[in-house]
Amino acid sequence: MAKPAQGAKYRGSIHDFPGFDPNQDAEALYTAMKGFGSDKEAILDIITSRSNRQRQEICQSYKSLYGKDLIADLKYELTGKFERLIVGLMRPPAYCDAKEIKDAISGIGTDEKCLIEILASRTNEQMHQLVAAYKDAYERDLEADIIGDTSGHFQKMLVVLLQGTREEDDVVSEDLVQQDVQDLYEAGELKWGTDEAQFIYILGNRSKQHLRLVFDEYLKTTGKPIEASIRGELSGDFEKLMLAVVKCIRSTPEYFAERLFKAMKGLGTRDNTLIRIMVSRSELDMLDIREIFRTKYEKSLYSMIKNDTSGEYKKSLLKLCGGDDDAAGQFFPEAAQVAYQMWELSAVARVELKGTVRPANDFNPDADAKALRKAMKGLGTDEDTIIDIITHRSNAQRQQIRQTFKSHFGRDLMSDLKSEISGDLARLILGLMMPPAHYDAKQLKKAMEGAGTDEKALIEILATRTNAEIRAINEAYKEDYHKSLEDALSSDTSGHFRRILISLATGNREEGGENLDQAREDAQILAPTGALQEIADTPSGDKTSLETRFMTILCTRSYPHLRRVFQEFIKMTNYDVEHTIKKEMSGDVRDAFVAIVQSVKNKPLFFADKLYKSMKGAGTDEKTLTRIMVSRSEIDLLNIRREFIEKYDKSLHQAIEGDTSGDFLKALLALCGGED
C-alpha cells in the first residue's frame, strides 16, 4: 500500500493494531477454521482490525507455523460475499487490484465499470505496483491484456492511464493552464467532430492541481463545465471513463462516495463494487469518503451499509467503515463544508506566483544611467523616459543603474530623481528605486512617525511578509534608522495590538507543512466547546484570553498548517474563523487577525481587495495603491490582477485608468503590466 507522503494526514479507517503479534493471530485463525464449521466472528474480528501490512505478516506466520496457505484455507472455509471481502483484505492492495482487473477482462464480456474505477482513480505509484503485481500473479502483461479486451479511444485512454506517468508537480503554470483550456475548447466545442487525442493527452497526463485550474478556467471561458463538454462530445465507455477521470481529479473521495451510494441505492446491492471500494480505500481516504457521503446524501455511509447488508458480511463492512457519522460530534455539517469550499482550492493550490515586472532582456546599466541623466538634465524633465526605464527593470537591475549612475556622474540617482519629479509619481518612482526591505522599512517608519499611527499600513506589511522578508526588513530598519523595529513598534502601539505586531515582526513563523493532530488541538484552543458563545453572552467574558489564544496560533503557525486549523475550526464551530474574529473582537486587534487569516487563505486576493478599496468611492488612497503596486510588482501582481477581475468584474488596469491621471497613471499602468 502506498504510504502517505511525509507530513501528510492519514485518512484511513484501519490502523496498525497495537500490541500486534502475528504468531498469536495466526494461531487464532487456525483455531477458528479447525474442525467442523468455522468461527466467522473470530476471523472477521482479527482481519478487519489489522492493517494490510500486518495481515501479510500473519500470512507468513501461518505458513511458517502450519505449512499451509492462509488465503487458500479462508477460501475453503468461507463462502459468498463474506469470503470475497475477507480474501480481498488479505491480498496486498496491488494484488487485489490485479485480481479485480483480471476478473473484469476474463471470460465473455468485459466489466468496463471495474476497469474505469480502478484505472481512473489510482496514483502513479499505485499504477506501477498494479502492473508489477499483475505480471507476478498471472505471468501476463497487463497492457497487452487490456489492449486485447478493449478498443478505440476507450482503449487508448486506459493505456495512457496505465503508464502511471501523470505529472506530479504541484506548482502550476498559468500560461499552460490557458493553453490547455484553449486546446480542449478547440478540440471539442469549436471543432466539427471531436479531436479525442487532445482530451486523452491533457486529461491523461497533466497533474491534478493543474487540471483543477484548467477546469475552473474552462468554465469561465466557455460558460459550461468540462463535464458538459465531455457528455456532448464523447460517447459510450470512453465518455464514462473521461467523466470518471474528471471526478477523480476534482475529488477522489467524492468519486468513491458517489460509487458507494449508487452501489446500494434502489433494489439490490452491487456487492462487487461495494467490496472493492471498502477494501481498497480503508487505509487511504475512508474518513474523507464518509464525510462527503454524509454531506452529499444526508445519511451516513455506516447507516446505509447497515440497512443494505446482513450477517458477518455486514459486520465486516461496518468495521472497515470505522464509525457512524450520524453519531453526535462526527457529522461534518454541510454548512461547514460550504464555508471553506469557496476558498480552499485556491488557497491550497500552489499556483505559480508571478510578478508583472521581470528583468529586462539585453539590460545595459550604462545606457540606462545615461538615458536617465539626459532625461533630468537641462530645462524640464522627460518623465516618460524615467517611467519607461524604471518600471521595466527589475529591482536588482535598478540597483545596478544606481551604482553605474554614481560611477559615471558622481551623483546620487535618488537625489536627482527627488529634485526632478514630485507628488504621487515621485513616491512611486523612488519606491521602485529602493531595495524591497528598505522600502518596507521606510513605509513602517512613516506609519509610526508624526501625530497618529497608520495602523493599516503596519498590519498590511507585517501580516503578509514571509520570514525572510521580515528579517530583511528588521536589518534594513536598524541600518536606516539606528533603532530596532521592535523598539519602534513598542513605543508607538499598545496592548494586544502591540503584542501581535511584535510577534509578527520576529519573523519566526513555522515553515513546515500541516499536522492534523496539532491542527485539531489548535482549533480546540481557538474554539473550546461553547466558549465563544459564553464569551459573547457574558459581559465579564475573558476577552483577553481569547485574543491571546488567537495570537499564539495565528502569529506562529505555518500557512499550510493554519489552513488545516481553519478547516478543523469550522468542523468544531460551524463558523469560519474570520467570521468569529469579526464577531468577537474589535479595533486594530480584529483588523490584524483578519488580515492574517485572509493572507493565509489567499494572499493575492487579500491585496486585490486592498487595491479595490484604495480606489473605491470618492478620492483615492494613493499611499496604499503605491505601496502595493511597488511591493508586489515582482512577486505576485499578475496573480493579484487575476483575483481582482474575478471578484470585481473589471480589470485592475481599468480601475487604475478610471481613478488616476497623468504620469502617475502611466507609471501605474506600466507596473500593472497589461489589460485583462
CATH fold category name of the domain at 603-672: Annexin V, domain 1
- How many strands, which pairing sense, and closed or not: the largest β-sheet? 2 strands, parallel
Based on the coordinates given, report the CATH architecture of the domain at 603-672. Orthogonal Bundle
Q: What form results from the Cα inertia axes? A: elongated
* Beta-strand content: under 5%
CATH homology superfamily name of the domain at 603-672: Annexin
Structural class: mainly alpha
Number of strands: 2
Distance between the termini: 46 Å
- Report mean pLDDT, rounded to a whole number: 90
Helical content stands at over 70%
Number of helices: 40
Question: In terms of per-residue confidence, which ranges show pLDDT below 50 for 5 or more consecutive residues?
Answer: 328-336, 345-349, 529-544
CATH class of the domain at 603-672: Mainly Alpha
Q: What does this protein structure show overall?
A:
There is one protein chain. The chain starts with 21 loop residues before the first helix and ends with a helix. The longest helix has 29 residues, at 236-264. Helix content is 71%, strand content 1%. Helix 25 (423-433) runs parallel beside helix 40 (662-672). Strands 1-2 form a two-stranded parallel ribbon. Mean pLDDT is 90; it is low at 328-336, 345-349 and 529-544. The radius of gyration is 31 Å and the shape is elongated. It has 40 helices and 2 strands. It is mostly helical. Among the domains are: 30-90, Annexin V, domain 1, CATH 1.10.220; 603-672, Annexin V, domain 1, CATH 1.10.220. Its main location: cytoplasm. It is found in: Cytoplasm; Melanosome. InterPro entries: Annexin, Annexin_repeat, Annexin_repeat_CS, Annexin_sf, ANX6.
